[in-house]
Amino acid sequence: TMAHSKALLVLENFIAGKFVPCSSYIDSYNPSTGDVYCRVPDSGKEEVEAAVKAAKAAFPIWSSKSPLERSQILNKLADLIEHDLEAFAQAESKDQGKTITFARTIDIPRAVYNFRFFASSILHHTTECTEMPTVGCMHYTSRTPVGVAGLISPWNLPLYLLTWKIAPAIACGNTVVAKPSEMTSVTAWMMCKLLEKAGVPHGVVNVVFGTGAKAGEALVCHPDVPLISFTGSTLTAQRITEKSAPHCKRLSLELGGKNPAIVFDDADLSQCIPTTLRSSFANQGEICLCTSRIFVQRGIYSEFLKRFVAEAKKWKVGNPSDPTVDVGALISKEHLEKVRSYVKKAQAEGARVLCGEGVDSLVLPNGNQKGYFMLPTVITEVKDESCCMQEEIFGPVTCVVAFDTEEEVIERANSVKYGLAATVWSSNVGRVHRVAQRLQSGLVWTNCWLLRDLNLPFGGMKASGIGREGAKDSYEFFTEVKTITIKH
Ligand code: NAD
């Protein structure tokens, strides 16, 4: 209807400090109602070309600013986002389907912190120097920004993950062309509105909206973009690697996971159960770090399962803007169907679904009947070879299986193609160290989950990625290093 189309939010690309309309647009859905509520530019080569040109033009001035000057601008931007925290949180929840509580307490505060963190860390890096007195020389390293950084981010933690790339890239003196997910572009567009006020010079941050196939690939293939930082699926990363190979681009790839939780007999279940529920179902299970294989030692298996399922049933699914809701909507109808299909496959293989999808009934408020909702689902009696135990589901579905020995569980935990994050639950400190050492996983959390110090490396092994991000790691990725030798 007319009234309906009038209410649509229409986004524009942000190039050289200006909002510019695009010739065609993509519909963007509100996942909690199923309505189209926003139109996102369907950018392609032309728009990417303009953005790269603007970023190249801004590079000489931005890269020659001192770290302190850049730091002050990043801090200002952090303050401005924080000032509008509630508006950003509302927008993120509406656009992505996540609960308003999650957006308010995790997504937007972290986006603010990403800028503050890199505003600070950029001031503290030092380079190396070594001497060779016997031949009368010294060597030192010098680091310079690389140029125009291409940044591509996914839909699950939209502003959180995009700023985790923009902040270090510009702190180091690069200029950027960013492409958020076409499904969650609104908060990136809102951030663009604050850049000028923060003092970010025109062309330093350019945002081009659109699909991966058109806008994303144009960025990956652009000869003047020497580095790509990508967070998303392993399949897309393979494509990006192929497409960028002719240009020998520098790549940072943060990909999917099939993360195990290992619960030993001596675990403190009063801590383990609520945390493992969160690690399985937080943000609808749409976090790359979410647990989806829970290995429980035989002695406590039935007790764990009973308590875990009873608690999972208490998670309230519904309107994301209701602050009492724990589980919002999944990102899209297609994704919901995909997640559901895993549960069906598990059942067909003879696994048991203890709660959630197909077992309990989902009651939704009136306005949300067409939203993409699903109950937290717990699967058991599932084989390690099952696709539910091997593939990333990326929804509120977790599998619980029993194990007997430490040796056995390490082998089973490692027997997937991914290697992003693991949790280990035990009160035996020696065991915790032993197991952590042997897990093929970029991150191991023992007796906790999602506690992060941004100073330390973040990233995955095996099919979960290449490279690490963090204070020092992002600095190394976003700068070029040169070794200079001086003979005296
Ligand atoms: P995706 O790979 O489909 O898309 C990610 C981004 O890449 C989007 O912006 C998309 O438009 C773009 N893209 C798609 N095809 C492209 C192409 N050919 N060239 C260039 N860009 C292209 O992933 P998604 O579905 O948006 O996100 C979910 C995935 O992201 C999951 O696998 C999840 O585990 C992963 N993820 C990983 C991390 C991490 O830090 N390791 C964090 C969050 C999400």
From TrEMBL:
<feature type="active site">
    <location>
        <position position="254"/>
    </location>
</feature>
<comment type="similarity">
    <text>Belongs to the aldehyde dehydrogenase family.</text>
</comment>
<dbReference type="GO" id="GO:0001758">
    <property type="term" value="F:retinal dehydrogenase (NAD+) activity"/>
</dbReference>
<dbReference type="InterPro" id="IPR029510">
    <property type="entry name" value="Ald_DH_CS_GLU"/>
</dbReference>
<dbReference type="Pfam" id="PF00171">
    <property type="entry name" value="Aldedh"/>
</dbReference>
<dbReference type="InterPro" id="IPR016162">
    <property type="entry name" value="Ald_DH_N"/>
</dbReference>
<dbReference type="InterPro" id="IPR016161">
    <property type="entry name" value="Ald_DH/histidinol_DH"/>
</dbReference>
<dbReference type="InterPro" id="IPR016160">
    <property type="entry name" value="Ald_DH_CS_CYS"/>
</dbReference>
<comment type="function">
    <text>Catalyzes the NAD-dependent oxidation of 2-aminomuconic semialdehyde of the kynurenine metabolic pathway in L-tryptophan degradation.</text>
</comment>
<dbReference type="InterPro" id="IPR016163">
    <property type="entry name" value="Ald_DH_C"/>
</dbReference>
<feature type="domain" description="Aldehyde dehydrogenase">
    <location>
        <begin position="24"/>
        <end position="484"/>
    </location>
</feature>
<comment type="pathway">
    <text>Amino-acid degradation; L-kynurenine degradation.</text>
</comment>
<keyword id="KW-0560">Oxidoreductase</keyword>
<dbReference type="GO" id="GO:0047102">
    <property type="term" value="F:aminomuconate-semialdehyde dehydrogenase activity"/>
</dbReference>
<dbReference type="GO" id="GO:0005737">
    <property type="term" value="C:cytoplasm"/>
</dbReference>
<dbReference type="GO" id="GO:0042573">
    <property type="term" value="P:retinoic acid metabolic process"/>
</dbReference>
<keyword id="KW-0963">Cytoplasm</keyword>
<dbReference type="InterPro" id="IPR015590">
    <property type="entry name" value="Aldehyde_DH_dom"/>
</dbReference>
<protein>
    <recommendedName>
        <fullName>2-aminomuconic semialdehyde dehydrogenase</fullName>
        <ecNumber>1.2.1.32</ecNumber>
    </recommendedName>
</protein>
<keyword id="KW-0520">NAD</keyword>
